[in-house]
Amino acid sequence: MKSYYVMLFMGMAILIIVCFFISHKDKRPLSIYSEKVFLATLMAVFSQMAIVSTSRVSIGLFFFSVFFTSIDWILFFLYEYFGLVTDHFKKHGRTYCFILTVSILDSIIMLSNNFTGLVFSCYSLKASDGDQYFLPIHYTLYNIHLVLCYLLAFYIFILFVRKMFLTPKVYWPRYYPLGLVFSVLIIWDNTYVFMKAPVDLSILGYSIGCIFLVYFSSYYSSSKIVKKMLSRVANDMDDILVIFDIDDNCIFYNTPAQKTFEITNLAMVSPEWFQANADDNIIRSNNGDDYKYSRYFKTKIGEFWMEVRFVTINLGNKKLGSYYYVLNRDLEHKRLVNEQYLTHHDKLT
After folding, report:
1. Domain boundary among 193, 220, 247
2. Which range (94-98, 165-169, 182-186) has the least confidence?
């Protein structure tokens, strides 16, 4: 059975190494901090693999101390990572320095157990499969280490909750998946701490966590947030914007388009409507699809001289959609005249 556990841990190590190299190619700050988490997690996996493989107590004790130390740094690097995600990260702040100092001291205490034996010891257990495994016997200093780890984990969770309450709901999908995964992994790890299983399989959760980290660091982007922000920007424009899909169905029009052309629903607008209002002086671009023209438009709010631009949106060689961008030249002319007036006139004269 031991050989199966070793193969499982090797597979986890390979997965974490893949996550590391994927993250290493991405130079964004989140990816850089996630690399530290992957390295500390890799140390924990190799420690567990060594504990399962060995039959010597001294080697088991040494790699238990390395494993407990790696937990310190997984949590510390997660604090850095999640602090950056929640905008609560000051590298030289008091909280950061305090947590770093505690992590260093706790690591020294864990590693010194190889010489002092004051933190934990271990005993041999023969499992039902006939193989021999080592399990730790925890002393007071280890219990302090455990409390410190859970306090840091709880603090990281509080950062998520605080950030979610301070940001609009549209941003919540950026935070709650990571917070949920983090909470599940802590509960999973806590279960194995107290169940006295011959092999700590909670470390499987670390690999799952690495996958989530590399996804949210290098690939995740909230399309809902982008859509809302682009819609707000488009509606704040003075110019008219009307967007069509590949089948020429209107999928968006901004507020100036609605007011100028009195649009009440998407079905009222079509490319043919713009083309019917074009005169013979259409200027086409090199690709033959895009064009622009200028003419007067009569609406209930007035008569405007406008420049209409039709642009095709392509993805590779395939059409993705199109849009009409209409500039109100009357407004632009008034703006230029006003700027020219302000340039050449002094308020005191």
Report:
1. 220
2. 165-169
Residues 87 and 138 in one domain: yes
For residues 156 and 97, what is the distance between their CA atoms, to the nearest angstrom?
15
Q: Letter for the amino acid at 77?
A: F
Residues facing residue 40 across a β-bridge? none
In a domain, 349, yes or no: no
Alpha helices in the chain (DSSP H): 2-25, 29-53, 57-85, 94-116, 140-166, 172-195, 203-218, 223-235, 255-261, 271-276, 329-344
CATH of the domain at 39: 1.20.1070.10
Going across the sheet that includes 250-253, the strands are 250-253, 240-244, 318-328, 302-315, 291-299, 283-284
Structural domains counted in the chain: 2
Mean pLDDT of the region 122-145: 82
Q: What are the residues facing 284 on neighbouring strands?
A: 291
3-state secondary structure of 326: strand
CATH code, domain carrying 288? 3.30.450.20
Residue 216 has pLDDT above 90, yes or no: no
Among 1-5, 304-308, 333-337, whose mean pLDDT is lowest? 333-337
b/e map of 290-314 (b: 16 or more CB within 10 Å)?
A: ebbbbeebeeeeeebebebbbbbee
Domain of residue 128 covers 2-220
Average pLDDT over every residue of 221-229: 63
Phi, psi of 237 (to 5 degrees): -70, 150
Q: Which helix (H) or strand (E) holds 281?
A: none
* Whole-number Å distance between alpha carbons of 45 and 62: 14
Of 191, 220, 249, which residue constitutes the final position of a domain? 220
pLDDT mean over 192-211: 77
In the DSSP assignment, the letter for residue 269 is -
Residues 118 and 191 in one domain: yes
**Whether residue 273 is found in the same domain as residue 320:** yes
**Does the structure show a pLDDT above 60 at 166?**
yes
In sequence order, what are the beta bridge partners of 121?
A: 137
How many whole angstroms separate alpha carbon 325 and alpha carbon 313?
Answer: 13
For the segment 192-202, the average pLDDT, to the nearest whole number, is 74
